[in-house]
């Protein structure tokens, strides 16, 4: 039995979750693989401004239940 790996949640995403509970529920409704894809994408940005921009750009796809690679 393998334990799921934990991925760090960027501070910008935590702040977004705190300010928008609807968005947090939509993100948590994604499959673990889809969540992981977004977390890796968000965390790979070096600057806070870039992480925030990536989160904002991904919001519509997250509400649709799409993964990072499934976005249009």
What do these coordinates show?
The structure is a single chain. By secondary structure, this protein is mostly helical. It has 4 helices and no strands. The longest helix has 17 residues. The N and C termini lie far apart (35 Å).
List keywords for this structure.
0% strand; mainly alpha; 72 residues; single chain; 4 helices
Over all CA atoms, what is the radius of gyration?
Answer: 12 Å
User: Could you estimate the helical fraction of the residues in percent?
Assistant: 55-70%
**What would you call the shape?**
globular
User: Could you give a short account of the major beta sheet?
Assistant: none
Structural class: mainly alpha
Q: How many beta-strand segments?
A: 0
The low-confidence runs, each spanning 5 or more residues with pLDDT under 50, are none
Tell me what portion of residues adopts beta-strand conformation: under 5%
Mean pLDDT: 90
Question: Tally the helices: what do you get?
Answer: 4
Terminal CA distance reads 35 Å
Sequence of secondary-structure elements: HHHH
Give the helix/strand layout.
Elements: H1 11-19, H2 21-29, H3 32-43, H4 48-64
What's this, in brief?
The chain has 72 residues and is mostly helical. It has helices at 11-19, 21-29, 32-43, 48-64. The chain is globular and about 40 Å long.
